[in-house]
Specification:
This protein is an alpha+beta fold and about 110 residues long. The chain has a single domain, classed as Arc Repressor Mutant, subunit A. It contains six helices and three strands. A three-stranded antiparallel β-sheet has the order 1-3-2. It is globular.
């Protein structure tokens, strides 16, 4: 998929997706749990607006990080599952966590 709005530099492209508000928190949830339902995310991510969560999930689907899987037909209910492409974020998040520990403010 080629999106003219995304930078051509791979580092900038990654930063443009992960740098969106709530992106890192949502994707981290999938790295920990792999499969999540909308309401589970809404309950876990305190303060996120439903439309923001919906927009991020759609974005992550568009870029192949998540897939939506229906588990109930009437009414339709879906869960989101991290793809192999999404799972490749694991080392990035580990590095972010490790680096974040190093930069904690000193008392």
């Amino acid at each position: 998929m080629t999106d003219p709005k995304l930078p051509s530099c791979p580092v900038s492209r990654t930063a443009s997706i992960l740098g969106l508000r709530w992106s890192a928190e949502i994707l981290y949830e999938f790295l920990v749990h792999e499969t999540r339902r909308f309401q589970e995310l809404q309950d876990t991510l305190e303060g996120i607006a439903p439309n923001t969560l919906s927009n991020r999930l759609k974005l992550f689907e568009d870029y192949g990080l998540l897939v939506r899987r229906y588990y109930e037909e009437h009414p339709p209910r879906a869960e989101y599952v991290m793809t192999e492409t999404g799972k490749k974020l694991g080392p990035i998040f580990k590095a972010m966590r490790d680096w974040g520990i190093c930069i904690q403010p000193k008392d």
